[in-house]
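Is 1-O-alpha-D-glucopyranosyl-D-fructose placement plausible here? Inputs below.
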Amino acid sequence: MRDTDGFTWWKHGVIYQIYPRSFYDANGDGVGDLPGITEKLDYLSWLGVDALWISPVNTSPMFDFGYDISDYRAIDPVFGTQEDFDRLLAGAHRRGIAIIMDLVINHTSHLHPWFIESRSSRHSPKRDWYIWHDGKKRKPPNNWMAAFGGRAWEWDGATGQYYQHSFLKEQPDLNWRNPAVRDAVFGDIRYWLDRGVDGFRLDAVIWFVKDDRFRSNPCGWGPNAPRPYDLQKHVYDQNRPETHDVLRDLRRLLDKYDSRMMVGETYENSPRGAKIAASYLGTGTDELHLAFDFSLLFSKYGARRFRQCLARWYEAVPEAAWPSIVLNNHDQPRSFARWCRGRHGTERARLLAALLLTARGTPFLYYGEEIGMDNGAVSRRQIQDPLGKKYWPFHRGRDPSRTPMQWTSGPNAGFSEGVPWLPVAASYREVNVEGQMKDPGSLLHFYRRLVSLRRERAALSRGSFRLAGEDPDILAFYREEGSGRLLVALNFSRGRRTMKLHDFIPGKVVLSSAGRKAGDFACTMELEPYEALIVEE
Ligand code: TEU
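Reply from A.M.:
I modeled the complex. Tokens:
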């Protein structure tokens, strides 16, 4: 891709996540598709993003909406054809945009031919491609739970053994200790690399390898306790050391190609998140290219908390590696719903935009974040997500952050001419791309300005990072590269605040969310309520 002097696309560019079912529906069946993404490439290029991560589009029976793959080499007909994929790839590359596929290899669908063969008999040559185990006195082999509810073990009456699944029972876990599994999956990965795909987002990395002695987990108290899954410490079914071997092998495979990358979903919802994510970066050059620390995403709102998240994350990332920054994805409530509802919502959203796009690390934007999309309301009848179906009303599932992209104020928010697979969120009349494109003062234009600033100022995309001050309401930091030094100051309070900085040198405004003109002089650091200010010294 567009690697030029000092610019590596996955380090210095901006990555945009698309949930393909919900982005744009080109054929009117109510489900977003690949031709829909291709149609919107001009929009994405106008926004200025450097890469798209597209949630899974491979053939799938859709028990988990694509996170259960039954053919790694094929495109599911609901999203289009192989040719549609090639057209998208070519169209993106023409515009200098890289394509990152979602690689779901912790598990397959239970309808993948490998699993069908594996479960056909205890003597099947593919038996050991999955994790089979005898029961203990008619009970599951150990106490492992599935992240999506119930036991991690499903009884197979026909062959008299249990198989293990970290998520749904329709998502049996592959046995990554088996070299034949590596060879087969690596073959499928090579297939996409040879077709020109630029990178992969690796699903569920921390679950790849399980304890070889199948020891039961000790009791514990996790983030969503008393959900049974969080009543144990996941010592033996997560973050096993051998997972690093798999990543090192994968890295060697990718390194045989030019400028390809992989970013791992290194999930953890605890203060250990940064350390765990960073551990999968290996030495910085031998495992993942990028990992996700979800601490910001799970954090409460506020300068102090966000500062602590950044500090921990940067401290954990190895010297030779590179951080990423993320506030949203398809599994969690939208940042707008978490932090920006009510008065001053848009101002708060601007602060988040500035944080995402000026901190050090590759920013990941989630579709709709750039216009301030809120969670949608999804009634019980409309629920699609298996998690919501299972846990309603305690957990309403992940549908609210997956509602259709809001393109216009017209029918179905301009997403589809059919009946959308999920209802559009009520905010679409006021919050949509068409309206915001016409308004230079909109959130969308603010994002676009920030994205282009990163390209103009190497200090923002590549520069060093140093926290400035300890103010409880203001998150401020210096970004420095060569002779360019920028001060970024984000006022998270609803009041006017003056920053005390012993080493502040008055400078020119580069960007302000509170109406100051670029080029004006900032001689004191008095910040308006919720102001994001970038000053060049
Ligand atoms: O997610 C794994 C994961 O950690 C989350 O599922 C998380 O535990 C859950 O969403 C909390 O609500 C990945 C994908 O991102 C997710 O969409 C898939 O459903 C899952 O793997 C299974 O493939």
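Short version: The chain has a mean pLDDT of 96.
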